[in-house]
TrEMBL record:
This is Protein N-acetyltransferase, RimJ/RimL family. The keyword Transferase applies. Gene3D superfamilies: 3.40.630.30. It comes from Devosia lucknowensis. PROSITE patterns: GNAT. Residues 9-164 form the N-acetyltransferase domain. InterPro entries: Acyl_CoA_acyltransferase (IPR016181), GNAT_dom (IPR000182), N-acetyltransferase (IPR051531). Keywords: Transferase. One of its GO terms (molecular function) is acyltransferase activity, transferring groups other than amino-acyl groups. The keyword Transferase applies.
Amino acid sequence: MTELRTSRLILRPARPEDAPCFALGVSDFAVARWLTPLPFPFTLAMASDWLRAAPSDNPDKSLFIVDLPGRGLVGCVAIGAELGFWIAKRHWGQGFGTEAASAVIDWHFTRTTSDAIVSSAHHDNRASLRLKAKLGFVETGRDMRFSHALQHNVPHVLTRLDRETWRARAEQLCA
């Protein structure tokens, strides 16, 4: 099982004991309103099932628990058809999303031949769109998606990060 480490975080496979914190994190409406595909409210039973079925150790489809040593679960990053992530509200504004997503993107591009990663966000989720822009994602279009928490369709911004953009960004950071 793959475990990724950053300067502050451990990104690791899900464990059954993560279910209570996972359920609490995504059941906070301030978080849930941005998580289009997840049911709301998200119960402990749902979290247990979700985490039990979570793929791991596959660079094309994996879920990582974002763990802050000494504090525990602070969020989640998943990569599959799209890159997705959430950070518990009490940990917003500390750069954990950028740090965790960067590690997963590095891991993905190192272990696959994929030319790009796609992602999306609600059109008014400025924090997520800023984070993606910082990572090098560019807007490729817009669509409508049903939000379970909001119970209606919401406009989504579609974004894409290609391997060459990511590599150039990494080279700039090392220069």
